[in-house]
Amino acid sequence: MTTALESKTTAQASPEVLAIHRRMLRRQRLGRALVYVVAILISLWVLVPIWFIASMAFTTPQVVRSYPKGVLPFIPFSTDTMAFFLRSAGIIPGIINSVVVALITLVLSTLIAAPAGYALSRYVFRGRDAFRLAILAVRAFPIVVLSIPLAVVFLRLRIYDSIYSLALMHTALALPTTVLVLSSVFASIPYELEEAAQVFGCSPVRAFRHVVLPLALPGIAASAIFTFVLSWNEVFAATILTLRNRTLPAQVLVNLNISSEPYQFAGGFFLMIPALIFIFFIRRYLFNMWGQITK
Amino acid sequence: MKRLYTLLTALLVAAMLLAACQTAAPTEAPAAPTEPAAEVTEPPAEPTEPPVEETEPPVEETEPPAAETEEAEPAPGDTGAVTFFSTQFNTVEEAERFRAILGEMGYDFTGTEEGPLVDMLLAGAETGQVEIDVVGALHGTFPPLQDVMMNMIDVADDLSADREISQAFLETGLLGTDDVLYYIPWMQATYIMAAHVDALEYLPEGVDLNSMTWEELTEWCQILLDETGGPKCGLPHGGMGLFHRFLQGYLWPSFTGGMVSRFRSQDAVDMLIWARDGLWPTIHPQSTTYDFMQEPLLAGEVWVAFDHTARLIEAFNTEPDSFVAFPAPAGPAGRGFMPVLAGLGIPQGAPNVDGAIALIDYLTQPETQGRILRELAFFPVVSGVDTSELPEGVAIEAAAVEAQANSPDALPALLPIGLGERGGEINQIFLNAFDRVVLNGEDPETVLQEEGANLETLMQETGAPCWAPDPASDGPCPVE
Amino acid sequence: MSDASPPKRRKGINWAPYLLILPTLIYLLLFFGYPMVRGLLLAVQDEGARLAVLSDAERSSPTSGTLPRGTSVEILDRQANAIDPADLGQTNMVTETWYFIQAQDASGQTVEGWTPETRIRVREQDEEGRPVAGTVRSVISSTADPLTSVYAEPDGGSEIIARLEARSEVQISDQSTLEIWYQIRGEENGQVVEGWAPSRYIQTLGDGSTGRIARGNLAQFTTIYIRRMINDRFFWPALTTTALLIVLIIPAQFVLAIIMALVIQANPKFNSIFLYIFSIALGISDLAAGILWYSIFTQSGYLNSILQGLGLIERPITYLSAGSRHWIILAIWLAEVWRATSLVMVIVVAGMQAISREVLEAAEVFGANLWQRIRHIILPLLRPSLQVALILRTILALQVFAVVIALSGGDVVTVLANETYRQYYDLRNFNVAAAYASFILLLSMITSVFYLRAVRYQEETTA
Predict the structure, then answer these.
(1) Which residues pair with C170 in a beta bridge?
(2) Are strands B134-138 and B84-86 parallel, antiparallel or unpaired?
(3) Is A163 close to B8, i.e. CB distance below 8 A?
(4) For the residues of B327-339, what is the DSSP string, one character each?
(5) Which residues of C283-306 are buried (b: 16+ CB within 10 A; e: fewer)?
(6) Using CA atoms, how far apart are residues C117 and C136, in angstroms rounded to an integer?
(7) Which of A105, B12, B474, C403 lies at a C-alpha separation of 20 to 30 Å from C116?
């Protein structure tokens, strides 16, 4: 992991020190190699099943039903099933709706959850644990039992069957995750930094904006990913609360598990793609900017 | 940091623009005029119009994908858009074909599962804001909705003027009442057997495919198991399979002559013992995950299967030369079989009742019924449908369906009626009885006594009278 | 929660945290308040457990007693109260409407009398919407009387004046909307209760002199649904399977996630690519994961294809069947570990960023090996993230069932979330479904409290 050790000792080298030095280098190299091996193994573990489903999505229906199953590139490549899937009614509008809902949910839930996360991390107040448990209860109660009352609430508020209202619902579902993740991230940023900023003349809000927020970026990125994926894959509320403006899961999942196998693979694979794209763009922010933390 | 802000803001603005253009198109349609229907006994509720979006019509034209949403173009005549929700034809291939049929008259439909549909209708009834015009679903979906659906009896009267709707199915639509018709019969199907031609080589001597018994079928499946090295018969015992209909409509009537009244008779005990020791060992063990038998048939995992005609049709359509269809086997008490009935209903307070009636009219015309038969393999409920030139797959099924219904020992079993909301419980009772004995190995007599007691309680508490094949009863159906 | 140290800044109550959490609270209350209360009540409250029997056939009269639902009763008398059509807006009224009609019967004689509105199809209405003319509806049911009776009074028990054929034309000159009340006598624990009740609550049997109370109008707290849930055939299997899966899945996921996070932290080349690959599974819904792993474990799936290709087996093995539950559990375990580890990993990686490199380097210089560094530095500093990840993952794990259904059909192997779904959608037993849901909620809360206490971190304990 470091070459500091190396550079310090090569100057004066007695044989024993050199031997120890070589051993440590070897251990370092072994350690390094181990890291690569583990990383590659885990990557295979993640990627191979995806390769399977991609193979099934991009081949002919006959191959999908055959046995033993081969994988690309050993089986014929065909975009028939995917094209059929994409052309099915309601898919393209469904995609647009899903993207819109997911983005609105993302912004809204972060805005509402950030103050709460900050409060949880910085203050110890009465009702703190109760608050955490209360918002978790929202997530922990199987939503299927709530379907009629939720529909009634939305109907009475006159916001039924609109993607904006679905975004509101998804925000409610995403709040618990976002609040908790943000609070844990804010908690790991020492308060002394904010205090230091305030000593130097920043107001608490400016201190937050310029000191805490950049450091919390990985956490915000993490919760952004969760929220987007949650909203994108959420099917239950989408089915109950919309009639005409359906999101992609509501469209597709109605028939996914009763459709033919080739269609299932195409649909399943396609459902993954936007989430993968979004994660690709956000992943950089998961890394902090090295060297900007000073303790 | 700044890049993140700008990126997200740009995305958000783009998203909201897209959304605004998108919702302008669909929400235009509900503003179509809805005339108060003369024949309806209750006044329809006012449609709720989302206020803002109507100020954006100019943007509509520049948004091509929006036009392809599930929103229907206005139908000919002034009936406006009709919101049609259907639990049938949800698989992609079927949905395409059904949309094509509906599209001829400018209609469209939204596919949905049964559970959410019932929830939406109940929520709509509770708040007085009904959004759905036509409900197309199986018979079993309607009992929980009895307080919510409109009386279709006048619609049936008008429709009967120029076509003959099956009397038996109209009666089923009464759901046990005398005066209230909850749905107009839409189409029917049933369950049959399918076999790969390769399996026919192993058919035992002297067995006629079209008049088999359950014992002969078991023999055949045993031969398949022995000769081909693995079980090749399959049953749809998956989570979304219709296995309870298999038990209620085929097994129990064929062996006991009844469904409810003879549920725990000695014949039933013997049948369960046969199912556990004779039948199930020859059935493919992955049957507990099968929902649609056409998939395992096409994949070659299974060579002989029992299933709904609509869940076998893809096999017949894709490879008509590889598969044959034949009636379900008979038992000691007859050849039990169960027709499946789908109906069209209108919720009370629907926004567009005239349009709904027009859509139902279209779907029950003989020409349309013929198209549904040819393209979707669901059989008509009106007479006068031209069945002369059927596509191969449908023709194969139609022959088996007819043979089954017209066989000399045919014993039609009807769908449970009069159980109201608790219709699901009777399915679970039959499933429990079978699973506990056959899958879990419990003692058949004990299981039948316990589940029979549950069945008895259910009948007593709902007061449901007997239905075919049980003899008619005075009061709640007794379980002997 | 410790309160040994004073609040951070000012004396007195610090309003700042409460203000900051207010938006979240209001938001959640708005959307979930009413539904959650209703959902929880469903599990313990039997709406309509008892029927209030009144001393007179009128809504405002006092109660003379109550009877439980399902009681057999004798029907002593019947009374039809005329309702003003203007009052019809009240919900919960089951009313009969009768029309006073004039028509010609089969023999050409003019008859007039009352007949139920369900027998008449209204064809013409006047300007105020009142019916003036119509036809007699045909009878569909083959067991009902094909002719329509005309009565002397708007009462099904009064004298029948005439019988009309279907499609006869009628003139409607009056209508009356009635609410029917029954006077009933029933017994509970030896005590006789007698009084009037609206007909919607009574189901008449046989000839109408006896009946039973079909539903009540008084709610009662009850444990019957909870008992039904516990006695349900699937309850214990679902509970044990859920517990087993949680115990097997979560530790494995955490170990795997920490390994992944350490790999990322070690900063090899292509680090961001590895991070991306590791978090791919986040984007996969549990339904898609179910389809995927089904395709691996099904008899004609990938596992068998690979094994057969390598020559290890001669013919395909069936993994997902009723006789091989352990294989199904293994498949579910694999599917869940594969799909959901990324959630934990992302949280852990985000939390690891805050651990400063200098501390770790210092430890290494002082001779700590990898395991010691993990145990004494990284894990303790990761506590906030671990706490959050544990809580979230457990709550989500209790809710997963799409994977279970895809791999087992939902009957052979079932989990609590699947049972909630089954009770709600297949059996339409809302109350028992609510009981299952409340049970899942209880389990989630218990485990969350456990995690909150067990994985406390420094900031929390010393404020």
Answers:
(1) C103, C134
(2) parallel
(3) no
(4) PPPBBTTBEEE-E
(5) bbbbbbbbbbbbbbbbbbbbbbbe
(6) 10
(7) B474
Which residue does chain C place closest to B179, by CA atoms? C118
A243 with B110: Cβ contact below 8 A: yes
Query: How far apart, in whole angstroms, are the C-alpha atoms of residue B82 and residue B10?
Result: 37
Say if the Cβ atoms of B240 and A164 lie within 8 Å.
no
> Which helix (H) or strand (E) covers residue C72, if one does?
strand C72-83
The Cα of B132 is separated from the nearest Cα of chain A by a number of Å equal to 9
C458 at interface of B, judged by CB pairs closer than 8 A: no
Pairwise CB contact (< 8 Å): B286 & C122: no
Is domain B84-190+340-409 in CATH 3.40.190.120, yes or no? no
Q: What is the pLDDT of residues C80-123, one digit of tens each?
A: 888 776 666 555 567 788 889 898 877 888 888 899 888 888 88
C233 CB within 8 Å of a chain B CB: yes
In contact, C287 and A253? CB cutoff 8 Å: yes
What are the boundaries of each domain within chain C?
A: 49-222, 228-462
Count CB pairs under 8 A between chains A and C: 306
The answer to whether C300 contacts B301, with C-beta atoms less than 8 Å apart, is: yes
Digit-coded pLDDT (tens) for B117-130 = 999 999 999 888 89
State the number of CA atoms in the 13 A half-sphere of A46 facing the CB. Answer: 24
> What number is the ipTM of this complex?
0.83
> Do A148 and B26 make contact, defined as CB atoms within 8 angstroms?
no
Neighbours of chain C (3+ CB pairs under 8 A): A, B
Least CA distance to A259: which residue of chain B? Answer: B91
The CATH number for C228-462, chosen from 2.60.40.10, 3.40.20.10, 1.10.3720.10, 3.40.50.1110, is: 1.10.3720.10
Query: Do C293 and C406 touch, CB atoms closer than 8 A?
Result: yes
Cross-chain CB nearest to C206 (options B179, B237, B475) = B475
Residues of C in contact with B173 (CB under 8 A): 140
CA angle A225, A229, A233 (to 5 degrees): 175
Cα gap C226→C235, rounded to integer Å: 11
- Report strand pairing: C120-125 vs B410-412: unpaired
C 220-259: CB under 8 A from A: 256, 259
The verdict on pTM exceeding 0.80 is: yes
pLDDT per position as a tens digit, B376-422: 989 999 988 888 888 888 989 988 988 898 888 888 888 888 787 78
CA torsion angle A61 A65 A70 A76 (round to 10): -20
Of the candidates C298, C408, C427, which has its C-beta nearest B425's C-beta?
C427
CATH 3.40.190.10 boundaries in chain B: 84-190+340-409, 191-338+414-462
Q: What is d(CA B446, CA B457) in angstroms, rounded to the nearest whole number?
A: 17
Interface-testing mutation among C299, C317, C328, C432, with chain B (most B C-beta atoms within 10 A): C299
- How close is the nearest chain A Cα to the Cα of C202, in Å? 27
CA distances from C163 to B245, B259, C360 (A): 42, 38, 98
The 10 Å Cβ neighbour count of residue C201 is 21
Q: Which residue of B has its CA nearest to C410?
A: B239
Determine phi and psi for C302, rounding to 5 degrees: -70, -40
Contact B178 C141 (CB under 8 A): yes
Report the alpha-carbon distance of residue C220 to residue C40 in Å, rounded.
14
Nearest alpha carbon to residue B416 among B381, B454, B462, B447: B462
**Which chains would you list as touching A if contact means 3+ CB atom pairs under 8 Å?**
B, C
pLDDT tens by residue, B195-248: 999 999 999 888 898 889 999 999 999 999 999 888 999 999 887 778 888 999
- Nearest-Cα distance to chain C for B159, in Å, is 13
Q: Report angle CA B26, B29, B34 to the nearest 5 degrees.
A: 150
